[in-house]
Amino acid sequence: MTTTATPPSQTLHEAAPTSAPLPRRRSLPALLVVPTLLILVAALGYPVGWQVVTSLQKFGLAQQFGQPPEWVGLDNYRALLSDADLWLIVGRSIAFCVVCALVTVGIGLGLALLMGAVGRTARLALQVALLLAWAMPVVASMTVWTWIVNWRNGLLNWVLDRVGVDAAGHNWLVQPLSFFVVAAVVVVWMSVPFVALSIHAGLTQLSPEVLEAAEIDGAGGWQRLRLIILPLVRPVISIVLLLQLIWDLRVFTQVKLLQDAGGVANETHLLGTYIYQLGTGAGDFGMASAVSILMLVITVAVSWYYVRSLMKEES
Fold first, then answer.
1. Do the domain assignments include residue 250?
2. Is 28 contained in some domain?
3. Which residue ranges are recorded for the region named Disordered (predicted)?
4. Alpha carbon distance 143, 56 (integer Å)
């Protein structure tokens, strides 16, 4: 019985059609992403581009009534660099966002661990309470908070009086330090539910066998938390910390409403309220746009380390 050998050239010729379409298959996901990228560029690129152009112009009240803007180049940025008040506000905003973000993630992690340790009924009650706090509109919740710290008939002063602390008529919003303590409490209270529920979702993905094996090996609760649980949920913690840094740096509504409730605006400005004061208050939209671009640069700089860490973990 004889066998006919297949020539090598014929084998290569038959195998070629199966390998040729591979580049097209690899390029298909990139082609599918293109429409989404175009929409994002159109939706986000235009406002940022308008801010950049406006920051290079003198754009005030006259321009809102039809006069053409005056091109001033980098004059707005030069004025900002020589403004000592601006850098005080920048430092204050960065310190505020870092403190609020760290406290929020710490409390959220504690609540997430608590939800994993309690029974089903208690966990469900805690989750519902967190969702209600998170779903409450900002203005509605701020109405409650401004009543709590009201110096005339607020709940905080009433409680302090009942426990023996003379706080009658004390205005918590006049002094900058107490103002930012109140603002930080409000911001953290509104942000904790998202962090707690996100970390709890990550904790539910941990393998119970790993924790049981560590407990059998003699690892205590603190050791399991430090050596097993935290490293495994580190990606989730990194993401929520990054989001909190960005959100707390851009905080506006809570601070503005507290200022309107009795705070001294010139002594309690953060970047968000300062931009609002320059634009809507003073009508200098060119300077407001320049500060907005500076705020964007600071946001990227603050979050760049965490973005690089996330990219390394993905790779």
1. yes
2. no
3. 1-21
4. 38
Q: Which two tokens stand for residue 60?
A: 């005030």
CATH label of the domain that carries residue 288: 1.10.3720.10
Residue 26 belongs to some domain of the structure: no
The ranges of the chain with pLDDT < 70 are 1-26, 217, 310, 313-315
Cβ atoms of 263 and 269 within 8 Å: the answer is: no
CA dihedral 180, 185, 189, 195 (to 10 degrees): 80
Q: Domain range holding 265?
A: 94-314
Nearest-Å Rg of the Cα atoms of the chain is 28
Backbone phi, psi, residue 58, to 5°: -95, 100
d(CA 229, CA 191): 22
176-188 residue pLDDT tens: 999 999 999 999 9
Tell me the pTM: 0.80
Contact 314, 73 (CB under 8 A): no
Render pLDDT for 212-257 as a digit per residue (tens, 0 to 9): 777 776 777 777 777 778 888 888 888 899 889 989 998 999 999 9
